[in-house]
Design the sequence.
């Protein structure tokens, strides 16, 4: 992305707005991931709206930047980039897994903008996050937990050099999420639309429904076939639901 509104925080994936419509879809990936993790989804969305990935420090083109370990700091910087990029256009935000919490805090900081919907998948709401101190674990147990959580594909787990590059961002993201506390009474006005896999063993539906306490716009829950990694395994289903709910079909 180039021009006066460019930012290292944002990677524009696709842009094909229809006549009379100019909306922006921002996708926040899961722990340790960059724009590549949401590229396929964003390309689908990009047939209907401008689709942009949020890229945190310490990954991809920002690999050698210091990772951030505070959700509020991440959200403040990302929200500022979103406001500048959107330039008054209606906004939709999506976050997968730990990215759902970051997406929520971003939207909370966009109260004066036209945020249509917050989409979240495969993660508990802010008050039900497990706090196991995973980021402090020795490397072996830490990687096994990351793999169990579905954050790292097998081909990376089998490449020690590549894995070594990703560990700092993964540890930072786990620390950010596990030490995060939402401000008392924090809610957003936008509706929250959630996706939860029917075979997801990391998040249970009663906990997921707790997102209703963080919005005055209501919660919609979509159960999709599959496990935790809906973004990878059921990209089309997630994209179709977002497109339909947003009125882009």
Sequence:
């Amino acid at each position: 992305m180039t021009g006066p509104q460019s930012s290292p925080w944002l990677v524009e994936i696709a842009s094909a707005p229809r006549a009379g419509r100019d909306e922006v879809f921002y996708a926040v990936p899961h722990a340790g991931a960059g724009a590549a993790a949401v590229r396929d989804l964003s390309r689908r969305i990009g047939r209907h709206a401008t689709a942009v990935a949020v890229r945190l420090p310490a990954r991809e083109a920002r690999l050698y930047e210091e990772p951030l370990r505070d959700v509020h700091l991440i959200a403040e910087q990302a929200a500022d980039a979103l406001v500048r990029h959107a330039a008054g256009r209606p906004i939709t935000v999506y976050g997968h897994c730990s990215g759902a919490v970051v997406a929520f805090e971003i939207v909370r900081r966009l109260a004066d903008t036209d945020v249509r919907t917050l989409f979240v998948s495969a993660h508990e709401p802010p008050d039900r996050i497990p706090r196991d101190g995973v980021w402090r674990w020795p490397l072996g147990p830490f990687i096994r937990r990351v793999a169990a959580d579905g954050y790292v594909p097998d081909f990376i787990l089998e490449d020690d050099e590549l894995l070594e590059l990703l560990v700092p961002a993964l540890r930072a993201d786990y620390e950010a999420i596990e030490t995060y506390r939402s401000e008392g009474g924090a809610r957003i006005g936008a509706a929250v639309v959630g996706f939860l896999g029917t075979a997801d063993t990391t998040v249970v539906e009663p906990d997921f429904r707790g997102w209703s306490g963080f919005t005055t716009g209501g919660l919609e829950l979509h159960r999709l076939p599959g496990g935790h990694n809906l973004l990878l395994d059921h990209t089309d289903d997630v994209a179709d639901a977002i497109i339909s709910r947003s009125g882009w079909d």
